[in-house]
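Q: Could you fold this chain for me?
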Amino acid sequence: MVGRKGMVGRKSMFIGCAAAAALAGAGSAALAQSTITLFGQTYTVQRFDYSNDFQVPNPYGTPATIPFIEAEGTVFRDGKLLLSADDLIDFANAPDNMVIEVNLDGYPGAITGLSYSRTILFSDQFVAGYDLNPTGITVNTGATGTGAGGNLLVQNGGGLIFAFSLQAGSLGQRLNAPSTQNCNLQPNPVLCSIDLTSRNTNAEDIAYFPGSSTLPAAFYVINQDDVAVEVWGVDGGFIRSFPVGNRPGQPQLNAPKGLTFLPESATLPPALRGRGGVFLVAFDDLYPALRAFDAAGNEVALEIMTTDGTATGPSRLDVTGCPRTLFLESLNFDATTGRLFLTNQGSLTFCTYLWVLTPEAAPPSCRADLNNDGELTFDDIQLFVQLYNASDARADFNNDQEWTFDDIQLFIQLYNAGC
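A: Sure. Below is the predicted structure, expressed as structure tokens.
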């Protein structure tokens, strides 16, 4: 959501955006880019243009199809992307208050294009009487709490979260308890909503955290006013918050926009591994950046997304043809392929780009070299014992989220095999 965007007529806004799209070029083919290195991982980059690559059936009637102009939320799910558009778009013949599903053509192989799959939600206050305003979206893959069982969570900019079904073949249905029953008091709760407004009335994005051995499952939500991420229990109770913006001696990052959770996996970038998964925060055009935190709120790594490290420098991602610089609004991660999806917020002056970052094959690593000094010595054995006793993910050598003799045995085998 762009709070500083002026509200002008639908027709004039759409003409401006159409002009920007024309500059960028049309069609479903991706613009190939060489590479980019983020968090120690080199990626091949493809750039797609989601307002030109496909059309969406028009819920307003005429014309029959319209472009998807402004993406606020991004979720990767089952080989497809979910994209949301909030209620501030205000373009002529462009969808707002909508969540759609988009095919990644060619997945899991090379992505060859984007195509429309289905409309999951549409609820405009001027058409349906209900203002959805989906500034952030996530999926609760857990067994308890709001939207449990793989349902969609829609977080609006005002600080409310609603759960919707993701049933294929029809519009999503809002999850509601019987009229005589409070949603929060169901015996086997699939809660229908969470109210954040006691603390957060400018929520930007939401990400589901499945929990760990030390932290419970929760929803992590950006509070843009506080430049922070808030942690809310899946039952709706506030737990804590942590700052994600300014740090002494670091760039002044004041506008967090996108948030996603990257689970611990072999496909994580090297700088982000061994922490039981990390949250990645995207910052907008005021200072384009990606900043990683562990689930406890400790900073892990930072990538400034300009070539010279300044707030207004050239973008590290190709924005050729766009009259404005990089505006990262949302992002997501596919643990199976290691792909990162970075979404630019399309509008009057910000182009409708989606970058797909596919990891390049890395040289085989020496996992038993735990201190990364290029040698296998007693220091690595000593560090393994410390990590094992602390139940650290770096000592879980078989990746079963348990610390047993199997991990010790596998470490010894790798150590003896050498690098």
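A (continued): The longest strand covers residues 113-122.
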